[in-house]
Amino acid sequence: MEWEEVHGGDKAKLTKAYATYLNNLAKETESDDSPSKNFTIDLADEHTITIETDEGTAVRLGPVPYRPQDESTKVEIYIQFAMTIGKRTKDGSENYLISKSSTEMVYLKLIETDGEEARERVQGLHFDFDLNGDQANGDDGEQDANHPIFHAQYNPNCVDTSALKHWDPAEHERSYPAFPRIPCPPFDVVSVGYMILNDHLPDTIIESRGWPSEEIIQEHIPRFPEESFEHGFGGQKMVSESWYVHHCIRDDGTPILDENRHRPI
After folding, report:
1. What phi and psi, each to the nearest 5 degrees, are found at residue 67?
2. What does the alpha-carbon distance between residue 95 and residue 190 come to, in Å, rounded to a whole number?
């Protein structure tokens, strides 16, 4: 399918959608940041919009309990992301679709050093997706075989120290290899937010049967295009929310979900 032309109005819709999502996510995780100030959206060309966190900044969430309802250990989570987005119209509705995505996240543990509050790197991951396969090309331009369409890689140093607020946590001394590239459900900054709420604040999801509010997922939040699911999945739709065991179920065991609190395919 061809991509349609994009204009300033499309940029405005996406800016509002992501600002609303990020600010609501910060609110749910009791962060005092305003993450809507930390990203830029541009018209890259007549068919493409790009969005990415500004240099030296990150979306900061938390502190949240490392384990649900256990205040003894808390973490802050820093996220950087970049996306390439196009537009298609289907059934009379404008759909914004992700053609390329990279999302990086680092967990910092709240600690005390010599009586002073500090942070320690404890975990880090980055998630990649490329509809057109550009990321599957090696440094020599050759195709990199067996490259997962959606994948995650472990790297606790993937968010640069300059973006970690006023903290200066030491980087992990180990150098982490490029493998394994772990196949995973589609992850962008929205999917990462849903994972964080499920991991650390699950009651917000359980009580709402999905995202904590209908406002958090605006109608113009981009989704992954259908063709990204055509290879290897037999046409199945794969959305990160579907990979969770939801606590509200019917008598037949199927989950009770609020359709207004989930991102459509």
Report:
1. -110, 140
2. 16
**Within its chain, how far is the Cα of 84 from the centroid?**
14
Tell me the two tokens of residue 150: 């959606």
CA nearest neighbour of 88 among 18, 187, 5, 190: 5
Q: Are 103 and 189 in contact (CB under 8 A)?
A: yes
Closest CA to 79 of 58, 108, 57, 55: 58
Domain boundaries, the chain: 8-261
CA angle 15, 190, 242 (to 5 degrees): 145
Tell me the sheet residues that pair with 158. Answer: none
CA distance 83 to 192: 14
Query: pLDDT tens-digit profile of 107-136?
Result: 999 998 778 888 888 889 999 988 876 544
Listed residue (134, 101, 120) closest to 224, CA to CA: 101
